[in-house]
What we know:
The chain has one domain (10-197): Glucose Permease (Domain IIA). By secondary structure, it is mostly beta strands. The protein has helices at residues 10-17, 173-176; strands at residues 25-30, 56-58, 60-63, 68-70, 76-78, 83-89, 96-106, 112-122, 131-132, 137-141, 155-162, 183-185, 195-197. The chain contains 2 helices and 13 strands; from the N terminus they run αβββββββββββαββ.
Amino acid sequence: xxxxxxxxxxxxxxxxxxxxxxxxxxxxxxxxxxxxxxxxxxxxxxxxxxxxxxxxxxxxxxxxxxxxxxxxxxxxxxxxxxxxxxxxxxxxxxxxxxxxxxxxxxxxxxxxxxxxxxxxxxxxxxxxxxxxxxxxxxxxxxxxxxxxxxxxxxxxxxxxxxxxxxxxxxxxxxxxxxxxxxxxxxxxxxxxxxxxxxxxxx
Length: 202
């Protein structure tokens, strides 16, 4: 039997743990290329992705006066739900991708929910097999400039149901982009947050 995934307070924790309220946080801003399933890019010169976006890019937010801000390196990242760190992959071209499985949430096929926090650096003590509680800080956004990237610092968040036969060694972005191996979910459907969608602007 499938277990319904409740909405997470992930946005609130991101705001509170990183003191974004000091900027009079009002809402997140998403451009088309940041959204789940988008075939567009949103950084630099806009263009096309090689495949549908596997998740949600979190970067910009607006204050109560309409002024734009953005998150930066060392932004603290909390776990969406209770879980176990399944893999910490270095195939992320910016930093690390932290894969957390949530055995309490399964779909009708018995596949297990996994949340992925990418372009990040795992906190000290966060290792494969580490049990984590909801809202625990598990990582921080990587420094894109130190990684040699001209992209704007941001967090990539993915959610997917994983079949039991996927091994830790196969937990990478090639697998995440393969619909025959995983069932991707739209993170915006599972995060309690205020946001606005805007057309791309340079």
